[in-house]
Amino acid sequence: MFLSLCKYLRRESPNGEKTMNGLVIVLIAIVVLGAGYLLYGRWLASKWGLDPKAKTPAYTHEDGQDYVPSSKLTVFAHQFSSIAGAGPVTGPILASVFGWVPVLLWLLIGGLFFGAVQDFGALYASVKNEGKSMGMIIEKYIGRTGRKLFMLFCWLFTLLVMAAFTDMVAGTFVGKGVEGMTKATGYANSAAASISMLFIVVAIIFGLIQKKVGKMKEWVRAVVAIALLVVMFIIGMKLPMYATKSTWIYIVMAYLFLASVMPMWLLMEPRDYMTTFMLLGMIIGAVVGVIAEHPTMKLNAFSGFNVDGSYLFPTLFVTIACGAVSGFHSLVSSGTSSKTISNEKDMPMVGYGAMVVESLLGVIALVVVGAVAVNGTKPEGTPFSIFSAGVAGFFEKFGIPVQVATVFMTMCVSALALTSLDSVARIGRMSFQELFYGDTTDTSKMPGWQKVLTNKYFATIITLFFGYLLTLGGYNNIWPLFGSANQLLAALVLIALAVFLKTTGRTGWTLYIPMFVMLAVTFTALIQKTIALVSNISGGQATFLVDGLQFIVAILLMVLGVLVAFSCLKKLFTAKKQEA
């Protein structure tokens, strides 16, 4: 029946060529991803073992700051909104130059067997180890040197995330148009910028309301959140904010400073919770639009193994990044989500489930860019603008003004990017602090220099400063390096998780193929990027703040990646069973 429906929905173009209906792609993705979650996700949970009666770190280390027992929906909201940022929209759109078939295949295969396994594994390992970060877990099972190298790698990676996403958000707020879609106006982007800034204030207000009132019924909490979002949207539409790109970069950096140092309950948790409603609205709107429009995929099905000098391997994999597998997700799973899980039985939905839905979002982004493609490839414009303008075009079927729809969609994708940014800023700050922690985190027992370096305000300023410098390179130049570092981080986490599972007597062989594939992909991509940077530098076409900094970061990432991978693999093949 399903196959018959797919056959019925295939299109034939006026010239007689067979084309694919975007709705078929979405339906296939929903079936495959849903089956993967129900079968493979649950199988992993049964093999690793969950104890619903065990006290989680959220209770054993409750401090009102980072360790806060939260409902399953709240933790899922935080995990989903943090990991499903700009990546699942940006990656598939940029990678679509290779054709929609290879992008779709990697989103489904990578999401189920690589990304979701890593996310769930990192969350599981952290909860089983008192909510410790991946760095601390590596120290326990691999050694202190491994932890130091891993944390330095993580810190460098967070700089790339901040640089890429900050530049993308700022460029979108300025109002870059989309080729062939003149209705995506500067007003829509500026209104979305205004709403995004109001969102910060509204999130703090919502956080204070929750703190004052205490535990609310879930439906009451949802109604309050949605009401605040509606008010915020109306005000933002009336008061658009116009500023230069550099000004927006400074504003975003200032926000990241606040997000990094403020308590979780005051800004990040309420913002993440509210963002989830926006995200669901965006996904539902996009899916309904696809159903109503039945968009034809104007993208090439397959453009070749070499497109404009970029090879499908490894470029496709590191470009899609977060939509299939992302090392950053492990930092969210072990850095924040593990500290708020109330019951171990919630972990499959939070860890595995959030990644599955993110892969679906990546598929939707692929269908959207396929619908607005020009001459078989993606149109010009930032990925955010392309996605927003594309979905807004679908909304015309319902009589919704394109301008209003564009504002809503731009607001949603920008909110997602900012949510990922605030998480990565906090994780970057914590990674920097962990680099300089010794045997204790008690500042009263530290020498003066160590107190300064582990101070959260100092660590945040240093992290944001270097992130800003990399922003000067622009997201187009940063994204390949970000994608490579992101996937290499995933490979290192997968190896570390394999060590943890083997050491504690759990099933870990399912991680072996993903970790070796990702090592091959990422080292190839980093070598290619380094050669390209050397070519620019030797040809006299480079500037230090762009190519020079990226070259230094690329070399550091490769060296650190080799050292951490060697330490983890050596331990993997010599590990003996011990207590979790």
Automatic annotation (TrEMBL):
Chief location of this protein within or outside the cell: membrane
Statement: the UniProt record of this protein carries the keyword Iron-sulfur: no
Pfam families from the UniProt entry: CstA
Keyword Metal-binding: no
CC per GO annotation: plasma membrane
Source superkingdom: Bacteria
Any one of the GO BP annotations: cellular response to starvation
Designated name of the protein: Carbon starvation protein
Organism: Roseburia faecis
